[in-house]
Design brief:
about 200 residues, mainly alpha
Length: about 200
């Protein structure tokens, strides 16, 4: 299973287990309160049963929480590896990008024309630098009889890098716990702690 598919599935299942755990705890607290208030053995027994259910729900939650964290770590590792490739690329890496930006600034300061897409790269890198270069471009353009017009420095970039896409399409490693069907807040628990035990307000 790919990480982009596994993470949402295990996130959703983890959330279901969290809801189930909260629901059981609510029932457990109610049963404990009634057992302490009434001294009724049936409520005490019910509280003990719910404690076992809560312990099991907590164990399940921790197992799938750990599985989800492992998947997220794998995703980050795959994304970081792709980012490292992009930074090291001689055509599109950080050093190459800065060199192109500085060349674009120099051309603008000389009053020459550069594609808007190149100007945008400068603006995204440093908007103050872009503002000064644009001002210089207008001043120098007015003094020039003929302005040079350049093609984009980014037209011949190397392959596009997509760290998130690569991470999403990376196969999940290791054995993952099976996602059980029909797991929700009420699955395997009583919707009312008193009803299943045959206890009602008369016991209070």
């Amino acid at each position: 299973m790919k990480l982009g598919e596994a993470i949402p599935k295990y996130q959703a299942y983890r959330n279901q287990l969290q809801d189930k755990k909260k629901d059981i705890y609510k029932q457990l607290k109610n049963a404990r309160d009634k057992a302490e208030r009434t001294g009724n053995d049936e409520w005490t027994q019910k509280a003990a049963q719910l404690q076992l259910s809560y312990d099991k729900a907590s164990e399940d939650f921790d197992k799938y929480e750990n599985a989800l964290n492992g998947l997220r770590e794998q995703w980050c590792a795959a994304s970081d590896a792709e980012n490292a490739k992009a930074l090291a690329d001689p055509e599109t890496g950080l050093g190459a990008t800065i060199a192109k930006i500085m060349t674009t600034v120099a051309r603008m300061c000389a009053g020459d024309k550069v594609p808007y897409s190149d100007e945008k790269k400068v603006m995204e890198y440093d908007d103050k630098m872009y503002g000064k270069a644009k001002q210089a471009q207008m001043i120098m353009a007015a003094l020039k009889e003929k302005r040079k017009e350049y093609d984009s420095l980014w037209d011949k970039e190397g392959g596009e890098y997509d760290p998130e896409g690569v991470a999403d399409n990376t196969q999940a490693q290791g054995e993952l716990p099976k996602i059980e069907e029909d797991t929700g807040p009420d699955s395997g628990t009583d919707s009312d702690a008193g009803q299943d035990a045959g206890l009602g307000d008369a016991a209070t």
